[in-house]
Write a structure and sequence with these properties.
The chain is mainly alpha-helical. The chain has 1 helix and no strands. The mean pLDDT is 86.
Length: 144
């Protein structure tokens, strides 16, 4: 049996290993460039992180103020609503009282209006001229 490795196989393997070493070298070079770029960007990223943290603190403060303001507004609205309910209850009581008194006055007002109409009709009846008692004669027909 022949245990010898074919020379074509050795040439293909050698080319493949050389290409692998080249790709590894290029990969190391690219990684060093990416590392350099990342180191250059680190201060910028740190400043952005600082600004974001400051904004987060400000937003938290604004949220607390908004919460306090909403609580105060709710308490004010509840107070105004309670006062409005009290005023509406008082107006309802006054309206019922006035309506009761008007119901008592309604027959008096109706009687006064009826008396006024009767008075005006009597007055207008007296103001009409009286018809004459003498009758007028019709003109005579002409003879032809």
């Amino acid at each position: 049996m022949n245990n010898e490795i074919p020379s074509l196989w050795l040439w293909i393997s050698g080319i493949f290993f050389l290409l692998g070493i080249g790709v590894l070298g290029v990969s190391v070079f690219v990684m060093l460039k990416v590392l350099k770029i990342a180191e250059e960007m680190k201060p910028k990223i740190d400043s952005v992180v600082t600004k974001v943290e400051a904004l987060t603190v400000k937003i938290d403060a604004l949220a607390d103020k908004a919460d306090t303001t909403l609580t105060s507004v709710k308490q004010s609205v509840d107070g105004v609503g309670g006062r409005a309910n009290g005023i509406m209850g008082a107006l309802e009581t006054i309206t019922l009282t006035v309506a009761t008194k008007i119901e008592g006055l309604a027959p008096i007002v109706a009687g006064a209006m009826a008396a006024y109409r009767l008075f005006t009709s009597v007055k207008s009846h007296r103001a009409q001229p009286k018809p004459e008692t003498a009758t007028k004669e019709l003109p005579a027909k002409k003879k032809r």
